[in-house]
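# step 3/5: fold
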Amino acid sequence: MKRPTLSVVVPHYNHGRWVEGAVAALLGQSVAPLELILIDDASTDGSGPVLERLAGDPRVRLVRHEKNRGVCATLVEGLRLAQGDFVYTPAADDLTLPGAFEKLLSLLAEHPRAGLACAQAGLIDERGRDLGPYRLPVPSATPVYMTGEEFRAAWRRHGAWVATYTCLFRRDAALAALSAVGRDLGPSLDAFLIHGLGGLHGACYLPERTVSWRQLESGFANRYGRDADASIAVVEGLLDALKTLSPRVHDDAYLDMLRRMAGEEMLNNLAHAPLFDRAGAAKAAAFIPGSDPWLALYRAALAAGAGSWAARLYLFPKRPVSEMARIAARKLGGR
């Protein structure tokens, strides 16, 4: 059983403080990548000498941009430059955990049809302190391959369960999907590859942590998550791209599910922001398809001037039972 090869593409922009640690963790894996393509997107933090030092390793290929192109365009460039069977695209400030590649590539060797492989993730702060698990549903307690149909069913049953920064994407399938859509996907790129490749080709899942995701207040997810207009534009771009790629597989019911999940995630982000954006919450609530009584009540509460408490109350029963129990225990314990 031949283990597939792996290229790592690291988009870098002003992460000179963390990129050495990230690259060391990637190159120090028990199963080494075929190559590491480090793409500097016109950084302005003086990290040039650090990147040059890293490029001294023959496994590292340094690509530099004269002008900033954005992380998504940078990732597409990396996919096209890569030579491995699969491509891993971590952030330049994340830490890939020991044994990650060995475990995921061994699983992919058993299931070569898979469009991607993913796992669980943990969280660390700016200083690298452990913040615990990145709380997502666990669709299987053992390593598993899901067919495309099973992958889509897991989203319907569990909600969002794929941790983006754990994903290894099959390069030929990713390039074919991007070619089929034929346009710039911007910030919807990651979600497009997850749903596009997983929905069409299936996915391998490993119920173990393979990466520590660094949470930064200035990070990409936070910037978009608290801007309803930007978030809605990203999701609409994703849904349109998926329908273009495979209208039979990604049918209206599946796209409505993604629309609902995205709208509820927007509400959650807005509810936990330092200042509650009522107008943004109203847009997010209007974006959620359907007219169930609780949603109608929440929309009415917003119109009457309700604040973040109403959003939290609306979202609470939609969480997995285990997550509701954890939140309740924390509240009762005064933490």
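# step 4/5: annotate
The chain has a mean pLDDT of 91.
# step 5/5: archive (pending)
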